[in-house]
Amino acid sequence: MDNLVGGRDMPFRTHRSVLLSEDLSRRGGPATQVIAVSSGKGGVGKSNIVANLAVALTRVGKRVLILDADLGLGNLDVLLGLVPRHTIEDVLVGTHTLDEIVLKGPAGIQVLPASTGVPRLTALTDAQQLMIQEQLAQLAAEMDILLIDTGAGISPNVTFFASAADETMIVVSPEPTSLTDAYALIKVLTRQYRERRFKVLVNQAKSPREAAEVFGKLDVAVDHFLHVAVELVGAIPYDDYVHLAVMRQKALSELFPHAPAAQAFQRLAHQVIQWPRPGLPKSSVQLVWPRAATPAGN
Questions:
Q1: Does residue 287 fall inside a structural domain?
Q2: Counted domains in the chain
Q3: Is residue 132 part of a domain?
Q4: In a domain, 254, yes or no
Q5: Per-residue pLDDT tens for 219-258?
Q6: Do residues 92 and 69 make contact, with C-beta atoms less than 8 angstroms apart?
Q7: What is the domain range of residue 70?
């Protein structure tokens, strides 16, 4: 598979990133769980997974913030039927701060909406990265889980946000091109940012067997050529109710809580909150996220 994504291995490089001060990282309470959800190609249902996973996590008592990090082609607000007055574009030009653009979504989730059709935001400058990191850390300190919905592919924004998170979950579908592009993304994150571990979620699987086969193909290629760890964390079944929920701009569990995919999201949420916290950073640019403050006496 390595020759399908072609070209010479790109040299290792790091992004300029902020390591938050120790006094922030030592606040009371468990550290905010930061998960980047990425995909090698568009059309695999990544943003829909983020939206529905966020709702499922709130139903198990977690405070969830979503960052729509597809900064030039954001669509999470559309998926959830939200109408933003301001977006991250306003933050980057300095007219607003992140806490001023937060939208309240279904089940109490909070959403930081991205812009649509703004090409200049597809590659943030170092200064813009610093601004987003600093403001996002303040908001994340009040959350249990921060989900980062990156764009698809291997653009600088995608790889930066994926590497900055505690965990990177790669979404794949049974389509062969999805696997090839997922491999390409893992390759870039491994070679350029020294990522060492990835979680994989299979979407639109017609059966558990198909999900296992899809993951197996990716696992074999990654193990043979890249020598890093990939872990299958679950599968979301192909479900016509998902399309109906998208068309109505509602979370699946709101409209069809007993749908097979809705049940799968709930199982995934229970699994996510049990993921062990790794002792070592997974990449060269992972951020040190602040700890959420808790009331005195807890």
A1: no
A2: 1
A3: yes
A4: yes
A5: 999 999 999 999 999 999 999 999 999 999 999 999 999 9
A6: no
A7: 31-272
pTM for this prediction = 0.86
Give residue-wise pLDDT tens across range 158-208.
999 999 898 999 999 999 999 999 999 999 999 999 998 999 999 999 999
Give the contacts of 56 (CB within 8 A, at least 6 positions apart). Answer: 253, 265, 266, 268, 269
- Give the integer Cα–Cα distance in Å for 63 and 52: 14
Main-chain phi, psi angles of 229, to 5 degrees: -90, 130
Phi, psi of 233 (to 5 degrees): -105, -5
CATH number at residue 253: 3.40.50.300
Residue 41 phi, psi (nearest 5): -140, 160
pLDDT tier at 58 (50, 70, 90 boundaries)? Answer: very high
Question: Tokens at residue 110, please?
Answer: 């909070």
Place of tokens 């989900």: 147
The identity of residue 94, as a single letter, is G
